[in-house]
């Protein structure tokens, strides 16, 4: 019987009793499956999560817990894991779901670990119900979508992970054209080279603040035109990752009004110079026109 220590591979060597103790003590759902896909061990968290009694699962195919839409492909994924067993997250980049006894599906996060006992290879899967996390993400998505200003969420690598309809309208891109792309696509070419440096500085010292204080900021629309903007930055943490949520306001109208005010002031100043050279009765009329 192996002594429980690693033998130079990524496979963990444990006795059956050690495995049972580890699995039963785990705070998350734990399920052990053999090379043929048969369930050989589960803990009470799995029973609670999926609604089955332990006896209903032991000896049955793991596919009983896989939604029908994914069931046909699951054996090939399992075979791939056993062909190159190593500890990893399952379905990276995909939304995973488990199928409960009552037919409902639940969002899950699954970690896979190869284990060896009595000379046989198994996979020990940790299964975490992420329903609450999904609800929180959905609440965030709804909040961002309902915001009256443009909202963009960006990860530490500068990739866009979330936008709202206001951003689509402001920049002329569809949501699908932006998600997964670099935030620099919305930065004018004159400022693009330095933008990653500014972004890295924010993630190094994340705190809510206005972007580019004292500078005129512009965004680059899909049609190549630039739009004056005001940007607020807010750091966010989700699933252990850091993001920045940026609010973007189109200040084109504010800029136009400011230019008009300056022009009106300049015109009035010129008129006052003329008025001051007129006789008193004319001066009063002239000043009233410029008021």
What does this 3D model show about the protein?
This protein has 291 residues and is α+β, with helices and mostly antiparallel strands. The chain has two domains: 12-129, Beta-Lactamase (2-Layer Sandwich), CATH 3.30.450; 134-253, Beta-Lactamase (2-Layer Sandwich). It is 38% helix and 27% strand. The strands form two sheets. Strands 1, 2, 3, 4, 5, 6 and 7 form a seven-stranded mixed sheet that branches. Helix 11 packs antiparallel against helix 12. The radius of gyration is 31 Å and the shape is elongated. It starts with 11 loop residues before the first strand and ends with a helix.
Distance from first to last alpha carbon: 98 Å
Q: Tell me the CATH topology of the largest domain.
A: Beta-Lactamase
Structural class: alpha+beta
Separate helix tally: 12
Strand tally, please?
Answer: 13
| CATH architectural type of the largest domain | 2-Layer Sandwich
As a percent range, the share of helical residues equals 25-40%
| CATH class membership of the largest domain | Alpha Beta
Number of structural domains: 2
Outline: elongated
Strand/helix succession: EHEEHHHHEEEEHEEHHHHEEEEHH
Mean pLDDT level: 86
Give the full name of the CATH homologous superfamily of the largest domain. PAS domain
Largest sheet: 7 strands, mixed
Give the radius of gyration. Answer: 31 Å
Strand content: 25-35%
Low-confidence stretches: 1-9
